[in-house]
Amino acid sequence: MSFEQLGLSPALLQAVQEKGYSKPSPIQAQAIPAVLSGRDVMAAAQTGTGKTAGFTLPLLHRLHDTAPVHPHRLRALVLTPTRELAAQVGDSVETYGAHLPLKSAVVFGGVKINPQIAKLRRGIDILVATPGRLLDLHGQGEVDFSELEILVLDEADRMLDMGFIHDIRRILKLLPAKRQNLLFSATFAPEIRELTGSILSNPVEVEVNPANATADTVEQWIYPVDKKRKSALLRELVENHNWQQVLVFTRTKHGANRLAQQLDKAGLEAAAIHGNKSQGARTRALEGFKRGKVRVLVATDIAARGLDIAQLPQVVNFDLPNVPEDYVHRIGRTGRAGAAGKAYSLVSADEIKQLNGIQQLIQRHITREYVDGFEPEHEVPENAPLRRAHKPGKHAGKSKGGPQRAAGAGASNEGNQRPRRRRRARAGGGGRNSGGNR
């Protein structure tokens, strides 16, 4: 299928061509016609599948195809959970709407509100916003929803995880009852279905990937290591594999700051990005990382959904997340849009509960490898058998079919097989498992 077959306007097709795309991704091929039909849409897709364009393109088409009552009055609202994701969606609106006479704005907290107010007063058709800042602006009388036609909830499951449900409900009460609603989520977890029941009307359901599946293009490994030696092992991996761009996830903001400082002192250019950082600091760190001035970007889970970095080669879980779904979103930062990626997790003995939860969720055992000189004194226990729960838990999504095929190095560890135990020599040692080029 081509973009032309989806029924998009010539101006949008020109923008898509200029972006270098010729064929829609699976989520775009299904979501775009559904949105163009005017019906409510409930779509599930993992990060890196092109879902942002899956709602941006048809949203722009619908607004341009229908004459507004008043030019440049707010007609479409996109709600996102993080500043980074809001900026990413805003960039998508500008890129694909380059040849359309539509105006857009992006608003989020952590920066001065006055420039945002000034832009809103000049008139906009599309607003991308985080919930808190949107409510602030509405409270000051700077946002008028009276002519709103389309509402998009992007990363809806993440918004629930981050506690935005009350803000979302407050915003919904301010909107016109007659509107098109689009909800995009990584999963159709029970709490998402509960939310959609009160928002969407007879929605078209689009689900591309099995819930909570990791991309087949991402190879995954775990490195057992004592907790106190994780920082040294990370430095070893970065230096000996000559990684020039690596995204590292920690569990806490304090841990992210501490690790970035340790790496910096060791001569590895590093920066931390998390919720306590100012927007300016977060933007500088991300731009430095994209340009290659920052070699290691250390992030908390707030960045797991909002970072869009083209061809990111590897992700490292310095700490395993407490919520298994966050593992899927973390490693989804690499292997995007069909590209190959690698995900490494440094696992200590006290994280076996988190490891088992992740493997249960993705229905695969992740290959273990040991780095010479970093063998743990306290061994990480063997993997628990994989069993499918009869009822999804609070954070679990719908599962379809049997265990998913393991990606890359973990391909033979399905079902209840015991994991292969491979030893990774120090890079440069000449062994078949040395180095990071596979």
Give a quick set of tags describing it.
438 residues, alpha/beta, Rossmann fold, 2 domains, 8-stranded parallel β-sheet
Structure characterization notes:
With 438 residues, the chain is α/β, with parallel strands linked by helices. The chain has 2 domains: 4-207, Rossmann fold (3-Layer(aba) Sandwich), CATH 3.40.50; 218-424, P-loop containing nucleotide triphosphate hydrolases (Rossmann fold, 3-Layer(aba) Sandwich). The chain is built from 14 helices and 15 strands. It has helices spanning 10-19, 26-36, 51-65, 83-96, 114-121, 131-139, 156-161, 165-174, 190-199, 230-240, 253-265, 279-291, 324-331, 352-362, and strands at 41-44, 76-79, 104-107, 126-129, 150-153, 180-185, 204-207, 218-224, 246-249, 270-273, 296-299, 314-317, 341-347, 367-371, 421-424. The strands form 2 sheets. The chain has an 8-stranded parallel β-sheet with strand order 10-11-9-12-13-8-14-15, with helices on both faces. It has a 7-stranded parallel β-sheet with strand order 3-4-2-5-6-1-7, sandwiched between helices. Helix 12 links the parallel strand 10 (270-273) and strand 11. Helix 3 (51-65) crosses helix 4 (83-96). The longest helix is centred in the N-terminal third of the chain and has 15 residues, at 51-65. It is globular and about 70 Å long. Mean pLDDT is 83; it is low at 389-422 and 425-438.
